[in-house]
Amino acid sequence: MPSRPHPRTHVSVLCATVLGALLTVLLPAGQAHAASRTVQGGRLDWSIKSSFQSYVTGPIANGSFSLTGGAATVGGSQFRFHSATGTYDGASGAFNAGFSGGVHFLGHKKADRTHQLDLTISRPTVRFPGNGGTGTLYVDITSKAKDTGTVTTSSQVPFASLSLGGIDMEGGGNAVQLNNLPATLTAQGAKSFAGYYEAGTALDPVSLSADVKAAAAKPSSAPSPSPTKSTKSKEKKGSSSGIEDGAVDWGVRRTFREYVTGTIAQGEWKLSGGAQDGGALFRFPEGSGTYDDEKRTLDASFAGAVRFTGKQGLDLKLGAVRAKVADGGKGTLYADVTSAGGTEKKVPLVTFIARDLKPQDGLARVTEAPTKLTADGAKAFGGMYKAGTEMDPVSLAVALTDSAELPALPDLGSAESATPEAAAAEKSAEPRTEAIASDSDVPVLPIGLAVGSLIAVAAAYVIIRRRRARPAADAPAED
User: How far is CA 163 from CA 17, 34, 367, 416, in A?
Assistant: First the structure.
């Protein structure tokens, strides 16, 4: 396991001159310079500030971070926010897209078990007014002032300025991709950052990719046919207490996924039986079973399976997922576990608390309930984790009527990854600390496609890496 840099001794300093951040706009015939269209689906990758991560998880703050709202980790230190929504105007180049998910930092634990450092950043939104130049990154932020302990929550703070480096945002394609945009902390961002950094501080670069829906077709002059009443293809499964549909969302454990794809296991996971990948979680769909409205109890089975394979003898499959919520709200997540030793049926993997499992609009749900590994679950993971270890939170939703809609899965979009080399990034062996910190934050500077021509142009760049003592402004000062 690589050693972490001491936040007061040294840190790799990156100086990058980017003569072309990547902008990709695919141009279907006849749609160049289209009017404002809808952005739907995509992801934003951002480390916020790598040295801040190192400080939080290092020996001084001795803290950690957790992910919320479906956010994921990618590469050595980046956070991935998902489900872009917004607008793109090809005529002016104006771009406005918000992303879901958040990250919660904790550090400097006190005797009363609270933390001096307590910071949550979520829902990043990127806005470019058009005509190139500078854009703005907005975030929701909750922070505790390091001097007074006052907690402040602010919505859509203009947190950082983003430089396009003169790139022309105009176009009419079906995807926008921007890589390694330089980010600088604003005055409002510095204030909401609880005073850990001054305005003008360089933050880590921002990369994003987003899908742009095709322009709406002109309405036809011909009269529209009379609408016909649609019928539900899904039939009732039973009594009023029966479940019409359902899904369980669970990522197993973030650092386990990183171990699987890291340099030790060098492995992968594959989904089968209808299971879906939501980036930071796996969705097990097609729920069926029973729900007791009076007792608020649940017994439901779900389809799909995930299989983890890799070196060091890694071969673990979880399938036939089942969720039970007993009277009083105690929940248990079960699965059939297949490993080298064979298959063990209905293993109780983790427990959780389902508070007030009361249906609303025909949907009973639990959102991101904390989970703890059971003794049987610890055996299923080959002793990698002890019983009681905190695993990824679990979300479940069951539809009790045909009209109830399940929560949407995180939408990462169809464009190429905002961080092309993230999958090849080195990761340490599991088990390890919850921290993800990188001694090197060298950005990926890909070759871009010129807007309106699809002709590849080289993104010239110079990267200078050197080690030196961290300046006082680069690491939060200890009180």
Answer: 12, 24, 37, 21
